[in-house]
């Protein structure tokens, strides 16, 4: 079983250079590897498997972090990952954060084919149609995970799932639920409709009110929420694909909600409706 090297890995090691290059999207795509930083993400990566293979393939840790998070180091080794002790400067060079936490993992891509998501007959899906900010993308993924969604779909017009900011913002949720990437929005909507999923576009200018949808009990069935760009929302051609365009009501004086907050409200509304009597999920389902 792999073990940590007795001396910190050299800053000039090819392994360090390769890990550092994963900050760039083109290199991530070529190698089909990405970085997961911090104890929470590394722990989740060590426990995750995709296609029968462990997701975490390599781990760099400072001596202090290796002592503090000895359990995570053990989980990484048990998963078959190569574990390297590294000087603080090496971790800083690899890391994309201002204040690294001493653990940086190298992980295999883990996205799921869209057809596989459809075959699982999802009941709640978040579709990120035009989301360009990686922090927002990761936060919506985290919201979807918390609300019990079955999958997340990132269209070809959205940010890279493996952008380090997106990975950090997901706070480990990236490893919890299936995520499809690079799916054209038209294909995503058509496929979900064929699978019996109702498509709701979230837009501040929507004709339908979320409260009214809940009052009418129209949200108990399989649902996919389509979320748009942080600044200009959803283009008209994308809204036209939906079964309904729904706005989150603003009861106070706020001008609007940011994307992640609106996504959380919408996803939890659907989750609650689906778990109510007569919904598509059992009220006893956890």
Overview of the molecule:
With about 290 residues, the chain is an alpha/beta fold. Helix content is about 40%, strand content about 20%. It has 13 helices and 13 strands. The strands form three sheets. A seven-stranded parallel beta sheet has the order 9-8-7-12-10-13-11. It has a four-stranded mixed beta sheet with strand order 1-6-4-5. Strand 2 and strand 3 form a beta hairpin. Helix 3 packs parallel to helix 5, helix 8 runs parallel beside helix 9 (about 165-170) and helix 8 packs parallel to helix 13 (about 260-275).
Q: Brief overview, please?
A:
The protein has 13 helices and 13 strands.
Describe the structure using short key phrases.
disordered N terminus, alpha/beta, 38% helix, disordered C terminus, 286 residues
What's the layout of helices and strands?
Elements: H1 14-21, H2 25-31, E1 33-37, H3 39-47, E2 49-50, E3 53-54, E4 56-61, H4 63-68, H5 70-78, E5 82-85, H6 88-94, E6 103-108, H7 114-119, E7 124-128, H8 134-146, E8 151-155, H9 164-170, E9 179-183, H10 185-194, E10 198-202, E11 208-209, H11 210-215, E12 223-227, H12 236-239, E13 244-247, H13 259-275
Parallel strand pairs: 4-5, 7-8, 7-12, 8-9, 10-12, 10-13, 11-13
Antiparallel strand pairs: 1-6, 2-3, 4-6
Helix pairs in contact: 3-5, 8-9, 8-13
